[in-house]
Amino acid sequence: MNNLSLHTDHQLLDLIQSGKIHVFTELYNRYWDKLFAVAYNRLQNIEESEECVQDVFCKFWAVRKDFKLKNQSLQNYLAHSVRNQVFTVLSRRYRAQQKNQQLGHQQDIEPLNPERSMMLKELEQQFNAAIDNLPPQCKLVFTLRRREGLSVDEIAEKLHISPNTVKSHLKKANSDLRDNLDLFSLAVLISLVIYR
């Protein structure tokens, strides 16, 4: 019984239970290439594929004394074990990718520091004050358009005025707000600071 390559898998499994490493080496050499092909076909990565096959053989060696084949061949059992190991690697890859994407998004979003936050608050106050200074009907039309998102026709219907009157009010509101140079320059400054 010196030439182990002539033994069947079942004969080798009987021998390996006594812990003979040369029997394990025979099984390892018999199936390494086939199992590597199974792993590489799914992972397309040499190192990860080798690691999968190594892990499967390490686990096999650990349970060799109690190992029993039921209704399948050893090759099928080992191939199934490699596929399970591949799914573990793919799951680990996916989690790492998700984590990297989350970290990337977190780095993209730069939080407002206290100075920027204060400038933004000041801009909002000045903008609201400029809107408050608009004539009442003009202010109402502007608010319905910009803050509530109503169309010109919807505003006209709601206020019982013509669409042309709505357009006139919007034109005046935009003109008055644009004329407020302090507000405009502050808006430009903040946009440069926040979105640079």
Describe, in short, the structure shown.
With 196 residues, the protein is mainly α. It has helices at residues 9-16, 21-43, 46-62, 74-108, 114-132, 136-146, 152-159, 163-179, 181-194. It is built from nine helices and no strands.
Explain this structure to me?
The protein is an all-alpha fold and 196 residues long. Helices cover 78% and strands 0% of the residues. The protein is built from nine helices and no strands. Helix 1 crosses helix 2, helix 2 crosses helix 4 and helix 6 crosses helix 8. The longest helix is centred in the middle third of the chain and has 35 residues. The chain is rod-shaped. 11% of the residues are buried. The C terminus is likely disordered.
From the structure above, extract its key features.
disordered C terminus; 196 residues; mainly alpha; 0% strand; rod-shaped
Topology:
Blueprint: H1 9-16, H2 21-43, H3 46-62, H4 74-108, H5 114-132, H6 136-146, H7 152-159, H8 163-179, H9 181-194
Rounded to the nearest angstrom, the distance between the terminal CA atoms is: 77 Å
Structural class: mainly alpha
Along the chain, the helix and strand elements come as HHHHHHHHH
Q: Portion of residues in helices?
A: over 70%
Would you report the number of β strands?
A: 0
Low-confidence stretches: 192-196
Q: Report the mean per-residue pLDDT as an integer.
A: 80
Count of discrete alpha- or pi-helical segments spanning 4 or more residues: 9
**Share of β-strand residues:** under 5%
Rg, Cα atoms, Å = 37 Å
Largest sheet: none
Based on Cα principal axes, name the global outline.
Answer: rod-shaped
